[in-house]
Write a structure and sequence with these properties.
The complex is a heterodimer of chains A (111) and B (114). Chain A is built from no helices and eleven strands. Chain A has 111 residues and is mostly beta strands. In chain A, strands 2, 4, 5, 9, 10 and 11 form a six-stranded mixed beta sheet that branches. In chain A, strand 4 (32-37) and strand 5 form a beta hairpin. Chain A is globular. In chain B, strands 2, 4, 5, 6, 9, 10 and 11 form a seven-stranded mixed beta sheet that branches. Chain B is globular and about 40 Å long. Chain B starts with a strand and ends with a strand. With 114 residues, chain B is an all-beta fold. Chain B has strands at 4-7, 10-13, 19-25, 31-38, 42-51, 54-57, 65-66, 76-78, 87-94, 104-105, 109-113.
């Protein structure tokens, strides 16, 4: 079957660094997305990895290891507004754009 | 402004009363999709469309219909809503070409079926 695992909840302190892990088992792989979703709002795109390695974008970085079926999202210099759910999604095989979604990691940033 | 819009944003209705949730995008995207999001179940795809007049079932299509007569619009139709369709619904679109094919989401429609 196809499966994506993420921790359900995490807490961190303002100004700190937090790493949110995602492991996946899918039939086919055409890239991995990270989305941010604030409570009651729409998911918004954060990052996309299709090759192994680290992609850095400001305070956010995302890492991928295809051989291990593993990704992480790294958030630096945490701010209160980073309190949100972080969704990992894998684009599977085929041309139908289908994303397999994790359940999300709810991050609480405390002062 | 490039965006995906949905209407209504909030709806409370009763069992069996047909309803339509509209979705429109102004980015000329070929691909559009409907999701529902429920606590503990995450985002689940209902239907998707690769282009005009091309639609296909997602993971949870029962009780829903869609149509894609124009590129910009992708309405979700509930012919006879039931309480188990109470959920937060998102429409999304993405381009056919481009490296990411990232999906752009509408603001969501919170539906309650009594």
């Amino acid at each position: 079957g196809q499966n994506i695992d993420q921790p359900t909840e995490m807490t961190a302190t303002e100004g700190a660094i937090v790493q949110i892990n995602c492991t996946y088992q899918t039939s086919g792989f055409n890239g991995l997305f990270w989305y941010q979703q604030h409570a009651g709002e729409a998911p918004t795109f954060l990052s996309y990895n299709v090759l192994d390695g680290l992609e850095e974008k400001g305070r956010f970085s995302s890492f991928l290891s295809r051989s291990k079926g593993y990704s992480y999202l790294l958030l630096k210099e945490l701010q209160m507004k980073d309190s949100a759910s972080y969704l990992c999604a894998v684009k599977g095989a085929g041309n139908n754009r289908k994303l397999i979604w994790g359940l999300g990691t709810s991050l609480a940033v405390n002062p | 402004e490039a965006q995906v819009t949905q209407n209504p944003r909030y709806l409370i209705t009763v069992t069996g009363k047909k309803l339509t949730v509209t979705c429109s995008q102004n980015m000329n995207h070929e691909y559009m999709s409907w999701y529902r999001q429920d606590p503990g179940l995450g985002l689940r795809q209902i239907y998707y469309s690769m282009n005009v007049e091309v639609t296909d079932k997602g993971d949870v299509p029962e009780g829903y219909k869609v149509s894609r007569k124009e590129k910009r619009n992708f309405p979700l139709i509930l012919e006879s809503p039931s309480p188990n369709q109470t959920s937060l619904y998102f429409c999304a679109s993405s381009p056919q070409r481009g490296a990411y094919n990232e999906q752009f989401f509408g603001p969501g429609t919170r539906l309650t079926v009594l």
